[in-house]
Amino acid sequence: MAEEVSTQESRLGFTLGPGHISFAVDESVYPLEAVYGACYLFLEKCFIYLSRAGSGVVKVRLTARGSATPAELDALAGEFANELLSQATRLRLSQATMRIREYYTAAALRAASSAPSVDDLLAELESEELLEDPLEIMVPWEEKHGAAESESEPKKDPK
Amino acid sequence: MAERITFDRSLYLPEAVDAAAAAYAEHANIQITPTADAVVAVISDVGDHDAQTVANAFCNHVLHETIALRRQAMLREGE
């Protein structure tokens, strides 16, 4: 890309040029994957060009799609920097919890593979002898206790 | 006026530059020259379009292709 003709420092410390703003990103602080993640989200908002500003340093150049004031460019770069920080944090958390997430996924898959299928459950139900009633739940109360109670009940004197 | 853009190999995939050049073939003449640590694209004959805007849009396209290709490669590695 063409070299910047004239530059000045923005309120947030970025380098302002005509219609664009640029800044350097240290890869030891913000991994390249985080830079890509932030770029991906900003591709619709502005034009992005990446270049090497040195070993382990990425220079990000954001160009407004239309006319933009220095304050608007500054805000754009500020939003990008915030997103960069968010992406870097997500990446670090993702890496830190990768083992435990893999473990839980594997455990869930193991449990799912060993769980009985619907057909197995239906077959089990059919095999059970549902008509057996050892506790005599299906026997009416009158049949079970009625006669005994009527016998033990003292007879009332009609007088 | 031709726009010369240097895509550093450590940041952009050469395949992404090729894919973007193919996508923009109808809108401009794009010459790709690979070097040891970069791929240089020279954009010319942009017709009625603004050369700078075409160059900026081309950069976005290359970046998008690079991110997409890298993510696909990472998914394949994870399989």
Explain this structure to me?
The complex is a heterodimer of chains A (159) and B (79). With 159 residues, chain A is of the alpha+beta class. Chain A has one domain. Chain A is built from 5 helices and 5 strands. Chain A has a 5-stranded antiparallel beta sheet, covered by helices on one side. In chain A, a hairpin with a 2-residue loop joins strand 4 and strand 5. Chain A starts with 7 loop residues before the first strand and ends in a 7-residue tail after the last helix. Chain B starts with a strand and ends with a helix. Chain B is of the alpha+beta class. In chain B, strands 1-3-2 form a 3-stranded antiparallel beta sheet, with helices on one face. In chain B, helix 1 crosses helix 2. The interface between A and B is medium-sized, with 15 and 18 residues.
Secondary structure elements and their pairing?
The complex is a heterodimer of chains A (159) and B (79).
Chain A: E1 8-9, E2 15-17, E3 20-26, H1 32-42, E4 46-54, E5 57-64, H2 70-96, H3 98-114, H4 118-127, H5 141-152
Antiparallel strand pairs in A: 1-2, 2-3, 3-5, 4-5
Chain B: E1 3-8, H1 14-23, E2 29-34, E3 38-44, H2 51-78
Antiparallel strand pairs in B: 1-3, 2-3
Provide the descriptors you would attach to this structure in a database record.
heterodimer; A: 159 residues; alpha+beta; five-stranded antiparallel beta sheet; 5 helices; B: 79 residues; Alpha-Beta Plaits; three-stranded antiparallel beta sheet; 48% helix; elongated
Summed up:
Helices cover 48% and strands 18% of the residues of chain A. With 159 residues, chain A is of the alpha+beta class. By secondary structure, chain B is of the alpha+beta class.
